[in-house]
Specification:
394 residues; alpha/beta; 7-stranded mixed beta sheet; 5-stranded parallel beta sheet; elongated
Length: 394
């Protein structure tokens, strides 16, 4: 009967990349549970079970006849490993965790990089937005897996305007087939990489990112722009989080898109005016907001092929506000929508369009700014703005 279960970080799955404690724990165990690769490496003379899920481990422990079991996981036991799901299981107190060497620390050491300021993201068997992650961090680490996964990440960076990011890649770390490469995403994207790969990305544009951008910080042209004070209220009302996908409909200069991109995972700036689209492109480059994607066209038709949004801001509707709101609600009944209006007619239309939603909030924002008149400062009123927010959670 099993009376001790150790969850052991096996580094890169070779003796040379394991700690002495981890190796001794496996050597002294009766039962070994883990991936086929780790069982082949360390399972000689033991009762072995191939399992890579928490339920599989539980089944193996119920079948095992030995007394001391090791659950072998790649890398460090607490770094994107099976340990997370095991620790959340009922009866998880039976597990004891033994640290290992993570792929992030090993890759950083291969290139002589510090890794205490690197933000990490796993794309191993997960769908994620790597370009969005890179745009928000100066240094990013990606754990990858599967054929073409590293090429896919590099291609995504290039397509998002982040092709000049410096990438440090490692494949088959700690094995005889280990390979290391570094260069820009552009220079590496056509390379050949194994399925066991990871990457550190240095974003040279990160210092350009900022919140609370003044109106003078945007390229404007002749296109209307949501002013700074209104942007602050709109973004606060949307209650954005790092997992949100936001539609900015009638994006204009992209001012709301670019400030929202600081928090949201991905922003889609929907705009039909070609002059405005050119301004959005210029402002994306100026503020390195590379998790903003421009969608040319009119809503709701332009939304049909986009990922479903969790939040939406409507700054311009081209007279189709009701249709847009209905389409958004059909795509995601739990969506949170914010609408700005400067005319009474649009305000009335917004109130009617959102009347069936929960959590309806209405704000009327009046702002005055000082203008120098001789030696005096005169307060000049701007157009009042009505801000309607409804749906989702505040």
């Amino acid at each position: 009967m099993i009376n001790e279960v150790l969850v052991v970080g096996c580094g890169m799955g070779t003796r040379a990349t394991m700690t002495y404690e981890a190796y001794e724990a496996i050597a002294s165990s009766d039962v070994l549970i883990g991936s086929k690769r780790l069982i082949e490496e360390f399972g000689s003379g033991k009762e072995c079970f191939a399992a890579i899920s928490a339920s599989g481990v539980a089944d193996a422990l119920n079948q095992a006849k030995g007394e001391k079991a090791c659950v072998a996981v790649s890398g460090d036991a607490g770094f994107y490993s099976l340990a997370r799901s095991l620790s959340g299981q009922e009866g998880s107190t039976r597990y004891r965790f033994i640290a290992g060497i993570s792929s992030m620390s090993m890759l950083a050491s291969r290139f002589g990089l510090n890794w205490d300021d690197i933000s990490s993201c796993s794309l191993h068997g997960r769908k994620s937005d790597g370009a969005s992650f890179v745009s928000k961090h100066e240094k990013s680490f990606f754990l990858l897996g599967g054929e073409g996964s590293l090429n896919s990440l590099l291609g995504e960076l290039c397509d998002s305007g982040l092709g000049e990011c410096i990438c440090y890649t490692g494949c088959d770390l700690g094995m005889a087939s280990e390979s290391l490469m570094h260069g820009t995403a552009h220079s590496l994207k056509e390379g050949e990489f194994s399925s066991l790969s990871c990457c550190i990305v240095i974003n040279p544009f990160f210092s350009l990112r900022s919140q609370n951008i003044p109106d003078s910080g945007f390229e404007r042209g002749e296109v209307p722009m949501t002013k700074q004070e209104a942007r602050s209220v709109i973004i606060s009302s949307l209650a954005l989080s790092g997992s949100d996908i936001l539609y900015d409909i009638g994006a204009g200069t992209g001012s709301v898109s670019i400030e929202a991109a600081y928090t949201a995972r991905r922003v889609y700036a929907i705009e039909r005016n070609s002059a405005a689209i050119s301004l959005i492109e210029a402002n994306i480059r100026k503020h390195a907001a590379y998790n903003v994607s421009i969608v040319g066209g009119s809503a709701p038709e332009a939304l049909s092929n986009l990922p479903v949004a969790s939040k939406a801001f409507i700054g311009g509707s081209g007279g189709g506000l009701k249709r847009i709101v209905e389409a958004l609600a059909q795509m995601n009944p739990g969506i949170r929508i914010c609408i700005s209006a400067i005319t009474l007619e649009t305000a009335s239309e917004a109130l009617e369009a959102l009347s069936a939603f929960s959590n309806l909030e209405i704000c009327q924002l009046s702002v005055s700014k000082a203008r120098l008149a001789g030696s005096y400062h005169m307060m000049m009123g701007q157009n009042p703005v009505y801000i309607f927010t409804a749906g989702g959670e505040a």
